[in-house]
Write a structure and sequence with these properties.
This protein is mostly helical. It contains ten helices and no strands. Helix content is 60%, strand content 0%.
Length: 216
Amino acid sequence: MSMIISRIKEIVSESFKHDNSGHDWNHIKRVYDMACFIQEKEGGNLEIIQLAALLHDISDHKLNGGILNKGGEVAYEILMDLNYAESKANQIKLIIDAVSFKGAKVADEMPSLEGKIVQDADRLDAIGAIGIARAFAYGSAKNQPMYNPLLLPNLHDNFENYANAKTTTINHFHEKLLLLKDRLHTATARKMGEERHAFLKNYIQQFEIEWNFNTL
Ligand code: ADP
Ligand code: NI
């Protein structure tokens, strides 16, 4: 492993040690491993992919007090402090600026293949069994209700409204998680996503059956 990757790994694993919102070091590690797997099939510059995967949540709006689009800048500064090449640091910044989901009706604008691979890996970790666990972990870290059938899902058309919305964890499935399969970029990720999406859909169906069980 190159010096820069192992140094960034150290910095990131240290800063994600105490997270309980589904954005802990294990999430970063899974995104890194999945991105490497996708790169093997789809190509793209491995070093850029690895660094962007490691740094992709370094200052996410959900965890930094609500500041949108700060992660790219923070990642850029970390890389520059380690004397990393400016043009590559800039490519990584652009990926991190674009990586987050910004609303059901907001189109993704990922500038590079490397970015598409990192975004695919991040999104695969949001669906399937682990994705479900992460959503509930996030909901509980934010003190968000699990479900309220009176609160309907909202398909947001801008990032600010999406980021500031009060929602429930079950609504988050309809506002984001169930939409991800059609927003994966690479064939490799789409294939991996099928089973995870089906699992998610079954889960929601079963949740509704149990919720609606009543005799009154
Ligand atoms: P992104 O940058 O696209 O939001 P992240 O890796 O930061 O991706 O993590 C997103 C994950 O955080 C979601 O997939 C979900 O598990 C969780 N999450 C975000 N918002 C909510 C919410 N309102 N309710 C439940 N889970 C949420
Ligand atoms: Ni992430």
